[in-house]
Amino acid sequence: MRFKNNKMKYIYTFLLLTLSFSIFAQDEQKVSKLERLLTTPDTLNKARFWTLNGTLATGYTGVVIALNNVWYAQYPRSRFHTFNDMGEWEDMDKMGHLFTAYMESKLSAQMYRWTGLSDKKSAYAGFILGTVFQSTLETLDGFSEQWGWSWGDVGFNTLGSGIYLGQHLLWKEQRLHLKISSWRRPLDDRMITSTNGLGTYSLVDRRNELYGTNPAEILLKDYNSLTVWASMNIHAFIKKENTKFPKWLNVAVGYGAENVYGGFENLWTDDLNNEYALNKTDFPRYRQVFLSFDVDLTRIPVKKKWAKTLLATLNILKVPAPALEFNTQGKTKFHYIYF
To answer: What's the pLDDT at 34?
Structure first.
């Protein structure tokens, strides 16, 4: 059985494809023809502006058509309807919407800034594009019998884009970055017997069926491995100009979940309609909140263009560090290193 969270791979694919382009929209001295091309102009460059608009419109149309044909066409259509999925996947999918909308807005704004559009107008453009793209997906969901328009998704989409826009309008910089980390821990390859006793199912196979096996899928889709972080820069809030406090040091709060092998419950069926249910004692579903340190890689002083590009790319990832975990089982855990 396939679930809605698998759809996120298409969203993240679009996100990662645009990442390499957007991070080059940074100011730097005009040293070569390539760097002149990548340098942000002081005034609007109409050629860049309309080229970008055309590229985004074409890419947006292509992604929507591909999603409709590759994903939604596999499921029955219906009249437009809503669906309350709050609490599903322990709300890890909502964290995915939050992170994705934030990144889409941030990257879109950087691309428009590259055209010479003002900081403020670029920020608004990023907010609009992030909101529009995510709302398009919700509209497609609304006409699919399998799901529906989710006000919860819309809320977290808007919040994610708003986090980017709000910071830019308030501080003209991102003092808080949304990041992700993921580490797939070993899983007991036990066999689960169906409720009617006629079938068996490997727990590892169930995990791989839901969340995939390649590194990109594990990083972006595995809700039991994924943690979404709000990483805030400390130095940005220190008013003393001569402080020796590291400019790159952040404090991060993360959200995760464990033992999630189904939407609302750990229930699923196989191709023969045998039903499986995980024992809640052995596999209790619970939520986690983490407190840790992080590094804002964009605040590390480097001069080389390739180094800035590499650090900006890697900054979507939370740096491994010690972490304190609080979970809904009422337990507190200390991790010497957590990613």
So the answer is: 59
- Rg of the Cα atoms in the chain: 22
Q: What is the pLDDT of residue 251?
A: 98
Q: Is the pLDDT of residue 186 over 80?
A: yes
SS (H, E, C) the chain: CCCHHHHHHHHHHHHHHHHHHHCCCCCCCCCCHHHHHHCCCCCCCHHHHHHHHHHHHHHHHHHHHHHHHHCHHHCCECCCCECCCCCHHHHHHHHHHHHHHHHHHHHHHHHHHHCCCCHHHHHHHHHHHHHHHHHHHHHHHHCECCCCECHHHHHHHHHHHHHHHHHHHHHCCCCEEEEEEECCCCCCCCEEECCCCCCEEEHHHHHHHHHCCCHHHHHHHCCCCEEEEEEEECHHHCCCCCCCCCCCEEEEEEEEEECCCCCCCCEEECCCCCEEECCCCCCCCEEEEEEEEEECHHHCCCCCHHHHHHHHHHCCECCCEEEEEEECCCCEEEEEEEC
Write down the pLDDT at residue 112.
Answer: 95
- What is the mean pLDDT of the segment spanning 21-45? 61
Q: What angle do CA 213, 287, 176 make, to 5 degrees?
A: 85
Structure tokens at 33: 């023809």
User: Which residues fall within 8 angstroms of residue 51, CB to CB, at 6 or more apart?
Assistant: none
Using CA atoms, how far apart are residues 176 and 129, in angstroms rounded to an integer?
20
Integer distance in angstroms from the first to the last C-alpha of the chain?
29
CA distances from 207 to 2, 71, 159, 287 (A): 12, 21, 30, 18
| Residue 190 pLDDT | 84
CA pair distance 10, 17, nearest whole angstrom: 11
Q: What percentage of the chain reaches a pLDDT higher than 90? A: 68
pLDDT digits (tens, 9 = 90+) for 261-304: 999 999 999 999 999 999 999 999 999 999 999 999 999 998 87
Q: Model pTM?
A: 0.87
Report which of residues 235 and 306 the model is more confident about. Answer: 235
